[in-house]
Design goal:
This protein has about 400 residues and is an alpha+beta fold. It has helices at about 1-35, 40-45, 85-95, 125-130, 135, 170-180, 225-305, 330-335, 390-395, and strands spanning about 50-55, 60-65, 70-75, 100-105, 110-120, 145-155, 160-170, 190, 310-315, 320-325, 340-345, 350-355, 360-370.
């Protein structure tokens, strides 16, 4: 069902774009041909079929063929006011739709041909100059005739132009064009004929600008238009699914933007939680160390005699440093042999005497014991409550003896 809808859409688009493609092809081809040398332009324009209508006074000849070879298909006398005979009009009616170009050739007796010299500066506005000076070079005014021209020679040394001017009375040409319009024949070129059996004009187009139009080509018979339309349809067949795919990708991308933003916010919250959990882990680790510190302080309170106090107590991961004064400093090492939290107790420095307090100054280093797996830490003794004064001294960071 979707394929049928797409094909129907493509058919509508092809019909709509057909005229646009045809106009573009005509414009594009004419622009490209205009870049070529004049001889090549003439060869390119002289392609396809041509229908020629040559008027020789009261005689009308109809020729049909290509630009290189045109055969006479009808010839008969015609009057200015009389109806044209059917053996002249029938070939016109049958061959005009098939012809790529229709040419009307006028007899020399009905036209005026003249070569005039003009300044080279008039080349850019030659059409207006000739229209303004028509009564100087011809016995007619510009309102009485249709005219055309071509530059025959440019004299650069004297800055002059040789211009071939061709004029035809308006009444005569309008009558012919009106009669051809009634038959549905619309010439693209009106020029001066070359006589009997001569179907080539002199290259000057006398057709009024209001009547100049390109012959509309039928795409059913024009192979170039058929090829162009085929390429357009092929491009649509290939490009339409790609456009649909791009649209779906854009919709999916837009739909994924909201979950992506939510995921980014969730990642930020997760990172914040991890940071907070890290801080909580640090606090838990410090809390786990606190009982061991309290046990060490409690044990020191029990082991040290009343004549000993600490002025400095430093506790690291695996070492303890104690400084203070005691009446029996040398006996402290033996006391620490009973410790359950400290081991390898030694003096960090020699014992000295304090003359003011009459006590020994000491500095001890000890290693902390690592509790074995499954071994319960020693419990606090009830005697610790009786020696709070020593605990308070041990928590001081620095005292003066």
């Amino acid at each position: 069902m979707n394929d049928r809808l797409q094909l129907a859409r493509l058919g509508t688009l092809a019909g709509t774009l057909g005229g646009l493609v045809e106009q573009f092809w005509q414009w594009w081809s004419e622009e490209l041909i205009g870049l070529l040398p004049p001889r090549w332009q003439q060869r390119l324009h002289q392609r396809g079929t041509v229908l020629c209508i040559a008027m020789d006074d009261q005689q009308c000849r109809v020729g049909y063929g290509n630009f290189n070879q045109i055969e006479t298909v009808a010839s008969a006398p015609v009057g200015a006011e009389d109806e044209w005979p059917s053996f002249v009009t029938d070939p016109l009616l049958t061959r005009a739709p098939k012809a790529d170009k229709v040419v009307l050739l006028l007899p020399p007796g009905r036209t005026l041909r003249k070569v005039i010299a003009l300044p080279a500066a008039t080349e850019s506005g030659l059409d207006n100059v000739l229209r303004f000076e028509m009564d100087r070079h011809t016995p007619f005014s510009s309102d009485q005739v249709y005219f055309g021209y071509r530059i025959v020679q440019r004299d650069r040394a004297h800055q002059r132009l040789q211009v071939e001017l061709l004029v035809v009375p308006r009444d005569y040409l309008d009558g012919l064009l009106q009669r051809l319009d009634e038959l549905g024949v619309h010439p693209a070129t009106v020029s001066l004929g070359g006589g009997e059996d001569n179907w080539s004009g002199n290259g000057i187009n006398l057709l009024p600008g209001s009547r100049r139009r390109e012959r509309r080509r039928d795409w059913r018979t024009d192979r170039r238009l058929q090829a162009g339309l085929g390429l357009v349809v092929l491009a649509l067949l290939v490009g339409f699914p790609l456009l649909e795919q791009r649209r779906e990708i854009a919709n999916l991308t837009e739909a994924l933007e909201k979950p992506r933003a939510a995921a980014e916010r969730a990642a930020q919250v997760r990172a914040e939680l991890q940071r907070l959990e890290g801080g909580g882990g640090y606090l838990r680790a410090q809390q786990e160390k606190a009982p061991a510190i309290l046990l060490t302080l409690n044990e020191l309170t029990q082991l040290l005699p009343d004549t000993t106090w600490l002025s400095r107590f430093e506790l690291s991961e695996d070492r303890v440093r104690m400084e203070g004064e005691s009446a029996e400093a040398s006996a402290l090492i033996a006391l620490f042999e009973k410790s359950q939290t400290l081991q390898n107790v030694t003096f960090a420095s020699p014992i000295t005497s304090n003359p003011r307090t009459q006590k020994d100054r000491f500095s001890l280093l000890a290693e902390r014991k690592v509790a074995a797996a499954g071994e319960a830490p020693p419990s606090a003794s009830p005697e610790a409550t009786e020696k709070t004064g020593k605990t308070e001294n041990a928590e001081q960071t620095e005292t003066t003896p």
